[in-house]
Structures
1.
Amino acid sequence: MSNEINRQHSSMEQKINELVDQSRILEAYMNDIVNREATVTRLIGEARLASAAIQSLTDESNIEALTPVGIGVYVKTTIPPVKKLLINLGAGVTVEKTREDSIHYVEARIKEFELALSQLLGQKQQIAMRMEQIQGQINKILQQPGQASVPSEPNSNSQIYDARNQSLSGPPPTRTV
């Protein structure tokens, strides 16, 4: 009988460790998505500023502007009437476009960024739901009769993910750099 209890206990502990490992992987993926979300949000803001700046340019008179040269240093410049702008398409390719075409290009990029942001938010929601499911499975295993406490080593993989707090309980994971 003692042998059977030990086997059940070992099986239960193995299942919990597998669920905790899944939760850790999901947490790392969630952190990656949060970082991507911040980047895309920054790009949307930058693109909106670019669109506003292009729209404020005129093709009739000179405009005074401050041009950044780096680390917070600016030089006062005069922008002649703007008929065409240069757009970097990537991979060293730059094309010349009219002001209106440039605005359309920037607005199209904003829409692409917003689509990417909504996809990231959907992925984040799916991961959060899966993490909550894992937490529920772990709690269910721990609440089984006769299994109220699971002895574990202090530095084992016994950390439990709490999706509501988006953190692991127990000692923080060690990271090597």
2.
Amino acid sequence: MSRQSLCEGPGSGPPVKQRELEILLQKVKPHPSPNPTLEQYQTPAVIAAEVLYFAHGKGDLAGKKVLDAGCGTGIFAIGAKLLGAAEVIAVDTDEAALGVAMANANALGVDVSLLTVDVAEFPEPCDTVIQNPPFGSQKKHADAPFLEHALAIGSAVYTFHNGETEPWVESRVASFGGVVTDRLRFAFPIPHTFDFHRKEVVEVPATLFRIERSGRTLKSGTPHPAA
């Protein structure tokens, strides 16, 4: 795979196959000292690759300006760039996470802009926002500010939430002027990371919502309908 192949424009096929993308994303190193209050869990490469490939198929990555909100060590930002995004910005308040994200991007040969800023303070409009915010296990509805701001600045939003909170998310999306176009559901593995964890791995139901602002023309038909 040549570097040139990573820069194909809108309308072209994916620069890499989904399995190849997954293998590349497996090289993204996690946070060395995650903070339980921030719920800093790495999105598994297999899930990140599926979501990114789905977003590419929707026309939301190639040639687009993409924001990875609360990026952690950069798995979505790096994957978006590998799939042909024109500009990728990754923001987080954790400078240690951003340091690892920079090393990961350099190792995989992609150009990502990294900013130490609170998600809610990022002012620029984007074509696409991708985020895996805290699910709220430590602070109830910690994902709400992420959701609200993503809908304020993004034309298309891909956002993970605890699967058990789907009705709450749908209500919030409607109140923010958004429309859920698609859902992808996953069993999200949470490995034994912190002292309060009792099991080696716990699977948490997670839903990935694709959301558009009301009034935007909806794109047609890939699988995973909202209804």
